[in-house]
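Aim 2 progress update. The chain analyzed this quarter is reproduced below.
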Amino acid sequence: MKKDNYISLWFKDFWRMLGHELKLIFSDSGVMIIFFLAGLAYPLLYNVLYLNGNVNDTPVAVVDEAACAESRRFIREIDATRECAVAFRCVNMDEAERLMKEGKVRGIFYFPADFGERIARKETAILSVYADMSSFLYYKNALTSGNMVMLQEMRNIQIERYTAGGMPVAQAEQLVQAIPYEENNPYNRTFSYQYFLISAILLVIIQQTLFYGMSLLVGTAREENRSLSSLPSGLRGNGVGRAVIGRGAAYWLIYMAIGLYIACIVPALFGIPQRGEFFEILVLLLFFVTDCVLFSLSWSILITRRESVFLLFLVVSPVCLFLTGFSWPTTSFPTFWKWFSYIFPTTFGCQGFININTAGGGLESARVQFTGMTVQIVVYYFLACAGVYIENWMVRHRERIAGAKRELALRAGVDLEEDRRIIAGEQAQ
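Predicted structure tokens:
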């Protein structure tokens, strides 16, 4: 009987906490903007900004001071690539730089006068490539085009040297490329920057908007001299666990819906490849959103002011994005940053999403990421419970704590009231 009464009371308290938290969320316009406007609009905004993930036929200028067969062949090959188109042939670098300043070209290929002579003497020939860094895509195209043609020209030069020494062409080709290979990039064949970036940034949006919205509520409560973690007066059970689960359920319900929109609907709207099954994405979101909710409940306790959220937005968001490993392999991270990345749910969530949805590897390919998120869920649940317990204890013993502070200040000879007036900028009476 007692067990039945406890279970009934647990669920009553849980629903009361859930309703209380939903009421706070929908009564704060700032939180509504972050959750629903930013949460729904940011994925669209990023996709619109990077809609043209590929830039083809980037106009470049060529300065060919060598005027040799090798440089002319190199220029023809550059013009034939998808990435670059030779728009101008300049006499000198001054002319090419002027065209770049005017925006008529986005890159410059410079062949020095000794380019052909060095190749003939079997020395290292130097080719200089300059790119307009106003856009990463211009730099990528110039570098990609130059590298692809350079590798092909190196192969041709080696074959020419072997055949000049009397070796048959077939044997020279076999010697230069003993193991034939075929380049295949199945996940992003066109090297689209949109596909490369958006897969990681979508889940970062889920974590960051959830954390900032929850932190906004906490900062508001602290500014109004109340505690968001304190249990409502009507909560008879006074259970910390049900308070954490009840509060978290409110955010979980909202962000499971937002998460499905971000992870499933937005990629479909913009034609981003989706190789993962809906069930697999749903399972990932169940883990990831739960992890994000408990992460936010744990760390938002440290927020003291409402405006602190905007400072965190500028500092934390880029860090979380790059720690996902989307642009740099995590195996090359310094030890500190590798361990630091384990704080954030996005470290595992984004990698799992890329493995499942971008690479189409299925749930098994994200086994390590699911394990990491499970560990985070357990750790952050207990941290959230500890934070709620400590803060409620401090609320219940507020007078005792204030008295201890006054006694300690008296022993140290500190006038707390005078300090308060100085901090507030009030004039001394």
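The first strand starts at residue 58 and ends at 64. DSSP finds 16 helices and four strands in the chain. These observations will guide the mutagenesis experiments scheduled for the next reporting period.
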